[in-house]
Amino acid sequence: MVIAMRGLYIHIPFCLSKCNYCDFNSYAGCLFKAPAYVNALLKEGEKYKGEKVDTVYIGGGTPTILNLYDISRLITGIKDIFSFDENTEFTVEMNPATAKEEYLKALFSLGVNRISMGGQSFDDKLLKILGRTHLTKDISESVSLCKKAGFSNISMDLMFSLPSQTMNSWKDSLEKAVASGITHISCYGLKIEEGTPFYENGVTPLCEELDREMYHYAVEFLENSGFKQYEISNFALKGKKSKHNLKYWHCQEYFGLGAGAHGYVGNVRSYNCFPIEKYIEKINLFGDATQEETPLTKEDMKIEKIIMGLRLKEGIDPGLVSPKKTEELIKAGFMEMEKGNIRFTLKGFDLSNTILSRLI
Amino acid sequence: MSDRQKNIRNFCIIAHIDHGKSTLADRLLEHTGIVSQRDMEQQLLDNMELERERGITIKARAVKLDYKASDGCEYTLNLIDTPGHVDFNYEVSRSLAACEGAVLVVDAAQGIEAQTLANTYLAVEHDLELVPVINKIDLPSARPDFVKNEIEDEIGIPAQDAPLISAKNDINIDAVLEQIVQLVPPPSGDENAPLKALIFDSVYDSYRGVIVYVRLKEGSVKAGDRVRMMAHGSEFDVVEVGYMRPLGLEPCKELKSGEVGYITASIKNVSETSVGDTVTNAHNPTSEPLSGYRKAVPMVFSGIYPADGAKYPDLRDALEKLQLNDASLSFDPETSVALGFGFRCGFLGLLHMEIIQERLEREYNLDLVTTAPSVIYKIGLTNGTEITLDNPTNMPPAGSISYMEEPMVDASIITPSEYVGNIMELCQDRRGIYKDMKYVEGNRAILHYDLPLNEIIYDFFDAIKSRTKGYASFDYEMKGYVRSNLVKLDILLNGEVVDALSFIVHESKSYARARRIAEKLKENIPRQLFEIPIQAAIGGKVIARETVKAMRKDVLAKCYGGDITRKKKLLEKQKEGKKRMRQVGSVEVPQEAFMSVLKLDE
């Protein structure tokens, strides 16, 4: 049996400002801690000295608000610790208007070969509502800069179901994103999370009908534009699927570095403590910041294969789920067989939580 | 009256809810010296958890207290506690029959209220001497003089010497004890006559068997005697007799006429020791049993099912245990397509039903689904036979029925006269037949109606209370059966009849009821993968319809490395939630939906 190579996730929990919908583990106004944080990341990485990985993903937060010096020593340090070659998919998340040309050129020359950009919307009014710091014009400019710096694999996040968003605004964003020359799109429906400004201010979600109309439109439009859906929220041109993210959906293993970062190694899921100071302190003291470890049982692994695998268009081995239940779901149009695998239909994706809770 | 009897006082305490009955009982226990503050769990007499929480007394309890009065004599005070609800009126009447006097507690701020009066009438009916006591005099809003006059005007007993007390703050409790000694007459009854003892309660004890609480009217009883339960006919050899003390049972040599105590005789089941039965000596029986005995007959029936089908044996065990202590509870196994294996249970009334359900859930930790309560109908079939029906599911097809009969009750409602209109309206709405109305002292009216039992088992008691600001009281007695135009209403979910939701209703009310139930179900059945039509039908004819729209969206947009564990937990929780639902055909029905049809007025 060929054991798939592991991935590496590095978390950069710094942001210029917190967006109104964001409940991630990220912090604004503490960039002065970045040098110590990068030191801690490299120290934590020493635990895995010599491990082979074939995908690296630096996410956040906003990794590109690290200064060039810090991000360069992070990337070179990582390359010294882990073993990987030029075929490794190496993604860095960036926000529009956070990176200059020379910064992007430097990343490219250091071996970064994929950019994931938080565009979110091509509607300035919506960007303001979301609390984003960039404008629509920054998005296209940043994409051009990335290309100029040598990147040929660029992903963009877009959000739908936003407060006051219209169907036309959504269509416009999709068209502009495709036209900007990117190779991968993630479309996320807004979820109003507890503790966020949206939640505190009583922002109400769009009605489910419009939400689904937007989603269904995106699937159809992107398909017609050459972006094939391969996961509930992800679409890619041929050969441009995110190899790193596929590891999550295939239940393959990955190392996690940084405050609050999750890892999955040796059938054990674990995550680090956060916030930033606590993480730095623990790493400096013990070289480790693990908060909790959960070894997976066979049953856990099976459940994860079902819930993660069915997010993918390729589907899963039908042997993982009850034939009687899948038969009913196929009959009702929520699932279908494709190339020997069982998978959700579009209608199935819409209600995937309810259906998954029956299948596990 | 013998010398022995002249120092005995048998009494109960009656009060409106919250006027301080249980608190006063606690104080009496403390002041007679047996219970120290430390030993006392608050409100000793109400020793079921549920009773304490609801603030009502479900089962009667009794206790023997010693008191040295100001005249220098030692007295035996037997305090007999009474349950406080219409379902248990019979038990109340038997407790009262064991007493010679009643302490009437009235709140100094609120004065006389509905239950005060209803209980007073009951006490007067049993020829009890009333000892008025005015409680909560330390409240700023207390107006004892007004309340004294109110008692004199409305009840017609002298109240100027009524002790002014605060049970809560332990003020003037001795005055109550003195009044009991002075006002309550001592018991009479010949201790040399054949044994004649009234059973006013019994409890099951796993070591001794049933402990029978008795008031001896005549004669005596001791260990070794052979006794007979006159109505039941069974005979036992007495193992032990004694007194109920605040901290437990205290055996004695012999119980004699006028005394209150207990008998154990290796009795296996409380059904053999019905409340109200007369205990006599098997070798030297009394000629006449005490009057007023009534067999406890379940009048309201409901299906009780475990929410988790695997808990069926636990439910059976729990019901068996409860029945040891409660002869009025009946149960037989039944099966429902929608709910699986369960029991058809019979209760005295709706409160009794709620109490049993709550005890099953709390004391036995069971999660239950119950079906709408039903009464027993009589059905005449076209082939000339007559059957009884306590489960709507078993109703024969309309074509084979020639007539149906439903049970009626003789209801009396006491209300302040300004609410007479409201009460009449309610009774009218519940298909009541007006009999008569009398005005009594204190601007109050007693209304008599014939009401179908199936109209009062839902929420009649609550409806009366809400229409009279809680002032009216209600009592009923079974009256017999009358022919009636009844129909069976079926509920269909996604085209399939849900047997557990079927019920029988008068034809004139079927449309309104059908609409309300369909609405309630719509509120309580969550949206699912498919659209679910809810229909209410009589025979094959649909008379009400609602639709639960299909769910549109339930999806997690983002799921990456850090979300997997959380997502798994979320889905497992969702799965657990589904486990608590009942699969009815293709529809998942939550427990609450079954329960929601029980409370249509909300």
Short description:
With 360 residues, chain A is of the alpha/beta class. Chain A is built from 14 helices and 16 strands.
Identify the notable features of this structure and list them briefly.
heterodimer; A: 360 residues; alpha/beta; 9-stranded mixed β-sheet; 3-stranded antiparallel β-sheet; 16 strands; 39% helix; 22% strand; B: 602 residues; alpha+beta; 8-stranded antiparallel β-sheet; 6-stranded antiparallel β-sheet; 34% strand; globular
Characterization of this structure:
The complex is a heterodimer of chains A (360) and B (602). Chain A is 39% helix and 22% strand. With 360 residues, chain A is an alpha/beta fold. A 9-stranded mixed sheet of chain A has the order 9-10-8-7-6-5-4-1-11, with helices on both faces. In chain A, helix 6 (167-179) runs parallel beside helix 8 (208-224). The radius of gyration of chain A is 20 Å and the shape is globular. The model of chain A has no long low-confidence stretch (mean pLDDT 95). Chain B is an alpha+beta fold. Chain B is 25% helix and 34% strand. Chain B is built from 14 helices and 32 strands. In chain B, strands 10-9-15-6-7-14-11-12 form an 8-stranded antiparallel sheet. In chain B, strands 20, 21, 22, 23, 24 and 25 form a 6-stranded antiparallel sheet that branches. In chain B, strand 6 and strand 7 form a beta hairpin. In chain B, helix 1 (21-31) crosses helix 6.
